[in-house]
Design brief:
alpha/beta, Rossmann fold, Helicase, Ruva Protein, domain 3, 2 domains, two-stranded antiparallel ribbon, 11 helices, about 35% helix
Amino acid sequence: MSRVKAKKHLGQHFLKDRNVAEKITRTLTGDGYSDVIEVGPGTGALTRFLVGRGFRKLVAAEIDSESVRYLEQWKDERITIVEEDFLKMDLDNLFEDKFAVTGNFPYNISSQIFFKILENRHKVVEVTGMVQKEVALRIVSQPGTRVYGILSVLLGAFYDARLLFTVPPHLFVPPPAVNSAVIRLRRNSTTSLPCNEELFFRVVKSAFNQRRKMLRNALGAQFDTGGLPESLMSMRAEQLHVSDFVAITSQLE
């Protein structure tokens, strides 16, 4: 089959190595779910192997009409092709049961994809996908590291994250200017946090938006931090564990 011309404005770099494509699809464990949505299938490098995994429901969400027309040529009843922006999709209605998210995620919206996943954390039990290596390192990082940030904390509160392997630029069309990495997120045992979760998200984002400042200054503009322990207020956001942010949020309620 001919390859659809890559569109740089979509932030998409199409994987051309079939062995790596199949390896990525094998990172889905199928543990606890039977339905999968692939984000940005493009020319179907992953899709053709996902079909062979035998999932009950496989949805390919693609915003680019040219790629959609290409995928529809397959006429495979095992795939539901949806021409829609994943970030705007109603995933709760699309899937009745638990499901997984996978794909070669467009690099320019990868962070937004993970925020979308967090919004649907009650049903998304697993995520595997390829992202810019820098983003992958940020997601799996621990407190005290330079790349530890908003996604590290918010995803870490609900998911266990692992960086599985890296993928070099020459395996893509067009080759990206960065290295890529494949990660897996598995929903952890936390059904809900012992605090207001909406407020928790606000606290984490506020703390890291001024990450060089101590928390008393980073949070002071939006919250009354007077009653919070000095041991935490004298620290910076990158030094705090998920449990520390939960403790702060509980005291701000």
